[in-house]
Hints:
Largest sheet: 9 strands, antiparallel
Binding site for FMN: 65-70, 80-81, 87, 109, 144-145, 189, 199
Number of domains: 1
Pathway: Cofactor metabolism; pyridoxal 5'-phosphate salvage; pyridoxal 5'-phosphate from pyridoxamine 5'-phosphate: step 1/1; Cofactor metabolism; pyridoxal 5'-phosphate salvage; pyridoxal 5'-phosphate from pyridoxine 5'-phosphate: step 1/1
Binding site for substrate: 70, 127, 131, 135, 195-197
Structural class: alpha+beta
Cofactor: FMN
GO molecular function: pyridoxamine phosphate oxidase activity
Amino acid sequence: MAEEQGDLTALRREYVATGITKSMMKGDPIAQFADWFAVARQVRPDDVSSMTLATADKQGRPSARIVLLKHFDESGFAWYTDYESQKGQALADNPYAEILFYWYGLERQIRIQGRVEKLLPEQADHYFNSRPLGSRLSAHVSHQSHPVASREVLEAKVEDLAEQTVDDCVARPARWGGYRLIPEKFEFWQGRESRLHDRLIYTRNANNGWDLQRIQP
């Protein structure tokens, strides 16, 4: 029988990484994330901050896209975007989301779930003003996720704004800013041989600390 178009059942890969145990993990999942992130940064520094952001609208319909992590600390994980974009509208209706990091060379992924809040305008200003001029011009003219007649229309708007710009000064649009995901649950996943993967879960407890347990792959 001829192979069906799009049939990927014969595709295989084997995971060969060293496993992880509870005793190897830090008590604080953000500190553990920082450790894994530092290792991943050495392997793929150009792609280490890429993460999938999954949201759901008020009807529960999910959507996912790649965004870039811009900073993280004990308060959460932050990125920047247009508040009027599809993800911004979804977060306005349902302020819970999940972010996912997958680092292929390390056979590792981290899922982080939690509530999302907007960053302060001062934080958005600080990051916006640190971006290259071209990125600031694009963010100013582009109403993310909204229809446009053509690419030429967008490019013309950027050119017009660039001609009006003095001393590379572009104001941050009020509709553009940052979000922070405040983590409630982490999953650290390590690929293992024969698909018997390691999955370790951190969940917040009643004392605002973290409980760690292993779950089955």
